[in-house]
Amino acid sequence: MQTLHVDLGERSYPIFIGEQLIDRGELLSRHIRGKQVAIVTNDTVAPLYLERLSRSLAAYSVTTVILPDGEAYKNWETLQSIFDALLTARHDRGTTIIALGGGVIGDMAGFAAACYQRGVDFIQVPTTLLSQVDSSVGGKTGINHPLGKNMVGAFYQPQAVLIDTSTLTTLPARELSAGLAEVIKYGLICDEPFLGWLEANVDKLRALDQAALTEAIRRSCAAKARVVGADERESGVRATLNLGHTFGHAIETHQGYGAWLHGEAVSAGTVMALEMSRRLGWITASERDRAVRVLVRAGLPVVPPANMRAEDFLQHMAVDKKVLNGQLRLVLLKRLGEAVLTSDFPREVLEATLNVNYDALMQESRT
Ligand code: NAD
Ligand code: GLY
Questions:
Q1: Distance in angstroms (rounded) separating the CA atoms of residues 51 and 352
Q2: Which of 73, 68, 30, 24 is closest to 46 using CA atoms?
Q3: How far, in Å, CA of 242 to CA of 255, rounded?
Q4: Tens of pLDDT, residues 146-155
Q5: How far apart are CA 42 and CA 69, in angstroms?
Q6: Distance CA 46, CA 66 (A)
Q7: What is the dihedral sign for C-alpha 36, 40, 44, 48?
Q8: Residue nearest to atom 2 of ligand 2 (CA)
Q9: Binding-site sequence positions for NAD(+)
């Protein structure tokens, strides 16, 4: 097992990474203060891992909350059902909420923990690659609004993150690829050598090679912990973790939550950010194509949906959380391995980027 730390003063916490950690109850017990525990999961993950996790928590009074699966349920109604279950089972302020599942469960259970009785402890047990490398670390919690992704939420750090890499063996291949979008993101924004490592190892990752997965998760979590430790509330560098997300969130919202997986939308959005960075003269066409090739090899879409026009993007992007004083800010690449958050770009370059025929561009870049 490997242990990393997110350094945030009194809100610091460990990230445990290893195989079969769900059975290691002692890792969880160290971070549970009371006698009550509520495991929040969904109807896909529960049959796979709930019994084992419950066994690890046999010393506690455990309530299980099984939510319907899907991004479409990351909303007020589902959140309310978590509070219903906690109150019905009389959970007090000493309770600990444990999120068992992907990013949807982690974001919702974390937000429930931030709100329930003005804040109770919570632990992340992420079971998708995306949640293991990104959403379980850093304390962003929340739900979607019909008008915008993740528009209602709180910064609220967990007590610990327990990453059991063996859970990825049951993850559908499409979901694994979606997680790789966020892994590749770290290479692009802050770790160019990691991009090289990914080029050499992406096939092993897709084949679920445990050593390669552990290394990718460790390096991703280390990058995320570093960025969150420097800027917990996203007043600066943390925004760079959102490479491709402003375009990607527009895709998710426009297509209807769940139609495109978050990582798929981030992948197509990343290609748009790469293309815009190239148009600004910050990266070359061959650097853009190098990044696109890794996304393609990871099994990810690199072309935005055919039904989206430039106006659709602009409309959704206007409600992005990075809009400040009415001004759109985007995460772009100064070079491979270095991202910036900037509003300093000509509007025409953004519009030209949105109007690119990405199918044709991908054809060209292959030839
Ligand atoms: P998800 O939570 O919807 O999980 C994907 C699918 O895999 C679901 O059907 C889930 O039930 C299933 N699943 C989970 N673990 C499994 C396993 N081990 N075996 C088989 N099936 C399994 O999606 P996700 O990609 O994990 O997370 C996406 C969400 O995370 C989005 O809502 C996004 O906004 C959010 N997110 C949050 C942050 C953050 O910092 N908080 C960062 C990135 C993404
Ligand atoms: N996923 C972006 C962040 O945590 O800031």
A1: 52
A2: 68
A3: 19
A4: 888 899 999 9
A5: 5
A6: 7
A7: negative
A8: 241
A9: 69-74, 103-107, 127-128, 140, 149, 167-170
pLDDT value for 204? 98
- The residues near 110 (Cβ < 8 Å, ≥ 6 apart) are 97, 99, 122, 124, 139, 140, 141, 142, 156, 158
> Residue 12's pLDDT band (boundaries 50, 70, 90)?
very high
CATH tag, 173-365: 1.20.1090.10
Q: What is the CATH number of domain 2-168?
A: 3.40.50.1970
> Ligand 1: which residue has its CA nearest to atom 32?
104
> Do the first three CATH levels of 2-168 and 173-365 match, i.e. the same topology?
no
How many whole angstroms separate alpha carbon 3 and alpha carbon 14? 7
Q: Which residues are catalytic?
A: 118, 140, 182, 224, 234, 238, 242, 245, 249, 262
Q: Is the pLDDT of residue 202 over 80?
A: yes
- State phi, psi for 319 to the nearest 5 degrees: -105, 15
Q: pLDDT tens-digit profile of 210-254?
A: 999 999 999 999 999 999 999 999 999 999 999 999 999 999 999
Question: CA neighbours within 13 Å on the CB side: how many for 214?
Answer: 16
Mean pLDDT (whole number) for 339-365:
94
Rounded distance between C-alpha atoms, residue 111 and residue 163, angstroms: 20
Angle at 58 between CA 53 and CA 59, to 5 degrees: 130
Distance CA 235, CA 238 (A): 7
Nearest alpha carbon to residue 336 among 291, 301, 299: 291
Mutate to test the pocket of ligand 2, among 136, 185, 241, 262 (most ligand atoms within 8 A of CB): 241
% of the chain with per-residue pLDDT over 70: 100
Domain ranges of the chain: 2-168, 173-365
